[in-house]
Amino acid sequence: MTSKIAVIGFGNIAKAIITPLLDKKIINPKDVFCLVNSKKSLESIKKNYKYEVNIFQANSKDSDIVWDCELKLLSVKPQHFREIFDAKNKNSNANLIISILAGVSIEKLEKKFPNHKCARVVTNVPIKIGKGLTGIAWGQEISDDQKQFAKKIFDSSSKIYEFNEDYLDIFLALTSSGPAIIALIIEALSDGGLSGGLTKKLSEELVMEMILGTIALIKEQKLSTAEIKDMVTSPGGTTIAALRVLEKKSLRSALIESIVSASNKSKEFS
Ligand SMILES: NC(=O)c1ccc[n+]([C@@H]2O[C@H](COP(=O)([O-])OP(=O)(O)OC[C@H]3O[C@@H](n4cnc5c(N)ncnc54)[C@H](OP(=O)(O)O)[C@@H]3O)[C@@H](O)[C@H]2O)c1
Question: How far is the CA of 78 from the centre of ligand 1 (A)?
């Protein structure tokens, strides 16, 4: 990737997206142009960030260079969206803004940046270790070349799914909230092991290995989840005793509703 990338808001999630690109030398630090709000963040990044990217304070005189980049990743908190210097009539139509802001629609982006093409992205925390999932919804009139360029930011550290914007809320619920739900399930199952006398460490290890093994089995043998369930559930056995409890406590319904609820919340933010 040779072109310059601007990062408007070089905070936690922006670093999680940009650092793997620098680690893998997909982009050169000298081609990354970042904006932050405070002097404190500016100095901290200069001092502590492991790459020497170009970094500027928002609204400083020399920060215009950031807005000249062909591709911009917009990654401030949603409440700071209004404060962003509007690059409107300054840049040409060749520019593309990719926003990761929760709850800011493509329509709002296109109003704010009328001379830019706009896309909206949802990604999740495993992107930090190259195992992320990224959903992209494209705004109007984005060329194939621009799409390819934009996708390069995410495809080295995540699997990319392209959607109509309407599906980004449910994608966010499943993939961005999902890690918290899975972490809670791991914790609860481990507590079950603890109740049976295992140490917390061993219990957690067993749960995680069991989950990884089950996923591998489903994938490698192309089994359905129902087939896995039948495989380990014998008449009058231990598994049906466990499943009976989960049905009684409505676990299945609770999980479905948790995703619907997260998706509705995301729609509410928009
Ligand atoms: N799409 C997703 O999957 C996903 C996942 C997680 C988060 N997010 C979104 O990511 C965004 C950032 O979250 P975060 O956790 O990374 O926040 P963060 O760590 O607080 O980073 C925000 C960054 O924006 C900078 N900033 C604030 N006002 C600015 C301005 N006017 N001009 C330029 N830069 C400005 C901040 O600088 P200072 O440090 O100086 O204030 C900071 O560097 C949020 O909108 C959130 O919704 C999206």
Answer: 8
